[in-house]
């Protein structure tokens, strides 16, 4: 993917990066520049509590080995660069690595050709994952034959009645329902009416699991199945890049050059799909307020820049147009940079100084990008909501602020705080990295998921 990234650059910038790479070829770890990563942003129990601080070592045998030769059907509501589908794909690859037979179904696909869908399907083909149409006899046969069915996101529940029809009750006892949503509009009977009858639900954070438990009971009058809380972990590929100073330096220099910022400028990045729920608008208000505070207090420091990664340069939806209009009106276009959505977030994490996780309302279910940023020794400025509170230790690995408009000024103050205290940024970043190494690595996640899969398989076999 880095090759495609390089080939898409303007010729003068491409030549500059090639010169950097050639200068570093003598170093063996430069090969990591071409490591593929699955990220994005941005892989949780009411009845069974899995300790989020389970520690395993990478030298131990793979905890998913028992899945060898098991047939696993994965059903995703869509195939896109959003968190849910990418997490399910990552689990597919982990299972393929231990010899599982994995079949993928996308319930809702664009009617026309889509480059993203094609690229992701090709990636699955390369990893040995079979892709089937969402409807038809093959889909039904696969669901009946599978040892395990993983239904991804609440919206994927629409697939059950539409495709399985009279076979729904046969398949439900072997379904693990992986839920990532925190938004109220997902609580519809047509989505989750079968939820009480599946083998289990897996949710990415304790706060989200509690929310689903209460909301389904109070609003829908249904009971959650046995629910497992499984915190996510960073992939080995991402950690290899994060821990390689040569690769990080090359990424940092190139990205900053492409953005037109200097090496000593301070970059605050928000990396999410651009939408109101992710809070890019409030972040830019905070960023503008922080610039005003610096000017009023006559603080001397390097230039501050805001980077918004996750734009849709082709469509430019209404919300993003609002963001760009605000930037123009406040005359801060030289300080704010919009970057198109991408699978390759590692180069941007390597180039930044602080991550802003500004998801609104109930926050992120977990927030994979948060632990990815911490792996790169970045402090996190996050909303005090959702899974972020289970990742970020306030005043230790980052600073938390309220959601909504009430959080604009606190976030602005936190931006100024970290911008004016380099030692605090470094200390928080280091402690964040240590927390990732202790709790949020791929083998931690694999161990936690393995415990869930064993129980679900046992339930399915009993039925």
From TrEMBL:
Keywords, in A-Z order: Glycosyltransferase, Transferase
Entry annotated with the keyword Nucleotide-binding: no
GO molecular function: glycosyltransferase activity
Xref: InterPro entries: Glyco_trans_1 (IPR001296), Glyco_trans_4_5 (IPR041693)
Domain of life: Eukaryota
Domain Glycosyl transferase family: 252-435
Any Pfam family: Glyco_trans_4_5
Descriptive protein name: Putative alpha,alpha-trehalose synthase
Gene source species: Lupinus albus (White lupine)
């Amino acid at each position: 993917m880095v090759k495609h990234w390089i080939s898409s650059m303007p010729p003068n910038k491409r030549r500059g990066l090639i010169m950097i790479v050639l200068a570093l070829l003598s170093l063996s770890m430069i090969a990591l520049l071409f490591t593929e990563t699955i990220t994005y942003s941005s892989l949780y129990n009411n009845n069974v509590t899995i300790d989020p601080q389970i520690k395993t070592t990478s030298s131990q045998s793979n905890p998913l080995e028992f899945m060898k030769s098991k047939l696993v059907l994965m059903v995703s509501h869509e195939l896109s660069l959003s968190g849910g589908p990418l997490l399910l794909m990552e689990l597919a690859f982990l299972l393929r690595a231990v010899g599982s037979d994995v079949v993928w179904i996308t319930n809702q696909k664009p009617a026309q050709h889509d480059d993203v869908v094609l690229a992701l399907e090709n990636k699955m083909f390369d990893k040995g994952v079979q892709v089937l149409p969402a409807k038809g006899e093959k889909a039904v046969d696969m669901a009946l034959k599978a040892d395990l069915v993983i239904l991804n996101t609440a919206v994927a529940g629409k697939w059950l009645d539409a495709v399985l029809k009279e076979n729904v009750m046969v398949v439900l006892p072997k379904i693990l329902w992986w839920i990532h949503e925190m938004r109220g509009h997902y609580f519809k009977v047509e989505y989750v009416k079968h939820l009480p009858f599946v083998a289990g639900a897996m949710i990415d954070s304790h706060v989200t699991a509690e929310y689903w438990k209460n909301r389904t009971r109070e609003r829908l009058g249904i009971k959650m199945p046995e629910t497992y809380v499984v915190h996510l972990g960073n992939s080995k590929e991402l950690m290899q890049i994060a821990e390689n100073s040569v690769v990080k330096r090359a990424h940092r220099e190139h990205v900053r050059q492409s953005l037109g910022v200097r090496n000593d400028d301070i970059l605050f990045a928000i990396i999410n799909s651009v939408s109101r729920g992710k809070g890019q608008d409030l972040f830019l208000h905070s960023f503008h307020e922080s610039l005003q505070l610096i000017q009023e207090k006559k603080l001397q420091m390097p230039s501050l820049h805001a980077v918004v990664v996750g734009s849709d340069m082709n469509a430019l939806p209404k919300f993003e147009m609002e963001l760009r209009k605000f930037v123009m009106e406040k005359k801060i276009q030289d300080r704010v940079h919009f970057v198109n959505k991408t699978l390759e977030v590692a180069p941007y994490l390597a180039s930044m100084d602080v991550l802003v996780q500004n998801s609104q309302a109930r926050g992120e279910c977990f927030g994979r990008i948060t632990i990815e940023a911490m792996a790169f020794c970045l402090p996190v400025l996050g909303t005090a909501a959702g899974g972020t509170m289970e990742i970020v230790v306030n005043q230790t690995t980052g600073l938390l602020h309220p959601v909504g408009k009430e959080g604009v000024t606190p976030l602005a103050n936190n931006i100024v705080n970290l911008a004016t205290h380099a030692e605090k940024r470094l200390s928080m970043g280091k402690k964040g990295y240590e927390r990732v190494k202790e709790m949020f690595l791929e083998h931690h996640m694999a161990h936690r998921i393995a415990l869930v899969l064993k129980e679900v398989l046992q339930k399915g076999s009993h039925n």
